[in-house]
């Protein structure tokens, strides 16, 4: 395998990493290299250096250290029973690629993941070695995201957190049942315990010792996880309940939903259909509503009997249509919590409404300038010169938003 | 009519100085003609000094940061619009907060265009290596075509990021150099830059990270507009990637699953036997508890929290259920109530390592609320189901005395939680004939609002623990 060129290895090991949706580079500890003694900076806001035609942001060099793996997870291209071509980077090669890409401003940093070779501990030791080399030998101050191996020794996870901005551990699938079925070598209990460890370690960093010294920063950009959507039979309510639990229990920064996508040399137990991209999008919208708009998971998924989100309209609009009794709301008097529930109003628009209306009464055109999507909002609001009259209660209101029925393709 | 010509570099500072002077003389916006850069026609005689008055001029921080974006916009009216708003702000301080006002709205839109352009510049500049042999710092150069005049305000970003290398960014209106400090020179037309072999690796990466089963061209173009493509080394791959995506995805779906390679089976066999062997060496009580599905509480919890302590302990303490911290660490009494408990033990001289500490219910019961978990009391059924595990622990440890802390522990041991405060400190026997006494749960003490009352209760709690310790 050492005969493979660097270019060939990069092709294999980035292809193997592309099913991980996370690519965020935001929220790290702010730092830079102005002193001339190192390379890199983290501004707090992430930067997407390119976009692939799949619409995904390319922010980090997202690669696997190796795609050899002793596990047999059905949904994964790198499972032991797949015939995909295998490769392995040396730690120096990963360090070289990261630094050279970074110097040319292609990336914000490294997102390193790996198949399990020999044992979880051995694999994690190699990953930590790469991160340590970047930080200590090369004074790299860019972003590092390490995909942690849940079965590895907690001490290794602790060391990883000293070098990485973000740690992540994938829960893989929405239910324990599905993990058992599709990833028989993984333990959902162990995954949860590892996420709990990361939270405990991160919180311990906030406690000053008796000398007043702070312990070293531990994963300043927090932890995230990914769930594959559409491989098992879980409905959206189950998925979102699972996320709610992850956010509250382990203080995750993000739960990524990844529409299950057909992989080369797929296992026969999986559905080889087009990835449910719209469903993935609706789940992200619902996730946002829960985190920033004060919605409870039950409210969002109560509209339909099958516990799934409406694919044709966004979850906030769907909720508003099902709860029209509280609408229309008056933008000049309604409280923040209520304004946040108006379709077409984002958090920024709501903030602008609240500041401006201290000075004067708002008109319809003001709302447009404040960034509101009035096509969605107008049936649900009152303004000084606008009343929806009977529009709010029109029977066919939903039809105004839902796309027209799709024609069957002839081909 | 007054004419102000602003320079290419240091534009913001120059505008601010001119605006301050003009406003001090209460010059109305319509009397000023602003121009920028070398092409500023000196038609109205710029050499005439600006009128200076004694009126105090103020500008809020918020306006300054807005102006420091708007000023780099390509719109020729930017200086006049900023001055007009600053002029209006002198009388109407609240104007800036009015996001519905068309003048303010326009400034925000212009600022947003600049912010976006700056952000895209930080994303899409692509350096090529131009290091000189023998030089002690590596050198890189890039050509970039921004939509607005953003080279100057973007330079600090690059200076902070690429501190250990020299770099040059050429743009049509301004060139920035860095060798430890930033300097500017005139803009240029596209310079020839040497080939850089790392670009091929980057193109390989761009091609390989793309998933052909999910094509979202619109999403890509919204964030990476075509106007930037001509200077991105990876962009000329895009048309072919899109063109072949559908066929590649169809091919994946059509291919029958292959037979696993021969090495797969032995690797899995070895892994499974290792995993099984690891389980066998562990305490079977703990393994069984891990798999508990007697009630639904396991579903939301991280892990069951077993008792902790020597199996030959004379004293066994039973609490209610794990809380947030206990659920995360897998250890009983690790949170705030645990701290009260530990302090009390220390004060009455009980070594926690010598006693067995456990809970009546082994999984944390809570309701997720945003980023927090709200503690919920276990119900009768849950207590009953979990008694199985408590009974096993009692059978394993065979303590001389059990201390039940709080109603849940009392209910688990006796079937009822009634009369807790009346029964506290008395010795009784469980249904199975094991001596126990009851006291309050340390979280009860934590919840007392009055400090005096709390100290009183803490003393009683300590007395209960001391009594228990003396009698074993």
TrEMBL record, chain A:
Keywords: Iron, Iron-sulfur, Metal-binding, S-adenosyl-L-methionine. The keyword Lyase does not apply. One of its GO terms (molecular function) is iron-sulfur cluster binding. Transmembrane segments: none annotated. Residues 53-296 form the Radical SAM core domain. It holds the Pfam family Radical_SAM. This is Putative DNA modification/repair radical SAM protein. It comes from Sagittula marina.
TrEMBL record, chain B:
The keyword Kinase does not apply. CDD domains: UDG-F4_TTUDGA_SPO1dp_like (cd10030). SUPFAM superfamilies: Uracil-DNA glycosylase-like (SSF52141). GO terms for biological process: DNA repair. GO terms for molecular function: 4 iron, 4 sulfur cluster binding; deaminated base DNA N-glycosylase activity; metal ion binding; nucleotidyltransferase activity. It comes from the Bacteria. InterPro entries: DNA_repair_put (IPR023875), DUF4130 (IPR025404), UDG_Type-4/5 (IPR051536), Ura-DNA_glyco_family4 (IPR005273), Uracil-DNA_glycosylase-like (IPR005122), Uracil-DNA_glycosylase-like_sf (IPR036895). Residues 306-466 form the Uracil-DNA glycosylase-like domain. Keywords: 4Fe-4S, DNA damage, DNA repair, Hydrolase, Iron, Iron-sulfur, Metal-binding, Nucleotidyltransferase, Transferase. NCBIfam families: SAM_7_link_chp (TIGR03915), UDG_fam4 (TIGR00758), UDG_fam_dom (TIGR03914). Belongs to the uracil-DNA glycosylase (UDG) superfamily. Type 4 (UDGa) family. PANTHER family: TYPE-4 URACIL-DNA GLYCOSYLASE, TYPE-5 URACIL-DNA GLYCOSYLASE. This is Type-4 uracil-DNA glycosylase.
